[in-house]
Amino acid sequence: MKRVSFIVLFLSCFFLSCEKEDEFKIPVDVSFQVDMQREQTSGSSIRFTEGHVILSSFEFKGDREQAESVHFEKEYKQGLYTLFSPNQNIGELKFQVPQGNYNRITIGFETFENDDSDDNQGGSGLLVKGMYRSSGGAELPLILELQSSEDFEVVAKSLFDGNQIILKRETPTAATIRLNPFYWFQAVPSSYLENAEVVQRNGVATILISEEVNEDIYEIVVSRFNKGAEVVFAY
């Protein structure tokens, strides 16, 4: 009788364990959006209006409490062109991720290097447009243009649970990758912008910041890319 009870207990534990393992394999739909910080910070002489990013790769790394870690990567050989938008769902950035309580999720992505070919739609890997107001009150268009590839790696957070992110089968999840150009430009001395080189872009006098024009500003801005980005999960 004791032997039978032991076998029953063993089989019960076995099936419960299998059910538990299967539970952590259940996928959750996670959709990613890409946007930028739009609200002008106090005292800023720049306001940003629009832009895009072209991704060459996307990477997800997640550590779960009660199951194995999750890691996957997707490459976009021709570049994934994405306008900054708070509402645009991107089909190529929708993934099925195993459910569970994640103690840490890291999102990595790389911008596409512009080689002026048709494959990447001829656009800059990262482009941000805005307006700069000088100390004299005059306004000029401002464009930040990144043509070389740049790696981003951001630790995600939850809108509700802080650093812990809870993914459940019954709760589709949206995550927003938000870049913050205000932070990028925060370290740029005002004198650099006041004396910035102005070029003609589509017949309009424009402050262009790129590898070839206003390089001193460009180097400061690029050095702050990673810290001026966030990924927020909402469910």
Beta-strand level of the residues, as a percent range? over 45%
SSE pattern: HEEEEEEEEEEEHHEEHE
* Termini separation: 50 Å
Label the overall shape: elongated
Q: What integer value in Å does the Rg equal?
A: 23 Å
- Total number of beta strands: 14
Q: If helices are DSSP runs of H or I spanning 4 or more residues, what is the number of helices?
A: 4
Q: Which structural class best describes the helix and strand composition?
A: alpha+beta
Q: Multimeric state of these chains?
A: single chain
Low-pLDDT regions: 4-19, 117-122
Percent of residues in helices = 10-25%
Average pLDDT confidence is 89
The major beta sheet can be summarized as: 9 strands, mixed
Characterization of this structure:
The protein is α+β, with helices and mostly antiparallel strands. 17% of the residues lie in helices and 46% in strands. The protein is built from 4 helices and 14 strands. It has helices spanning 2-23, 181-186, 190-194, 215-222; strands at 27-36, 46-64, 70-83, 94-98, 100-111, 126-133, 139-146, 151-155, 157-158, 165-167, 173-179, 198-201, 204-209, 229-234. The strands form 2 sheets. Strands 2, 3, 5, 6, 7, 8, 10, 12 and 13 form a 9-stranded mixed sheet that branches. Strands 4-1-11-14-9 form a 5-stranded mixed sheet, with no helix packed on it. A hairpin with a 2-residue loop joins strand 12 (198-201) and strand 13 (204-209). The longest helix is centred in the N-terminal third of the chain and has 22 residues, at 2-23. The model is unreliable at 4-19 and 117-122 (pLDDT under 50).
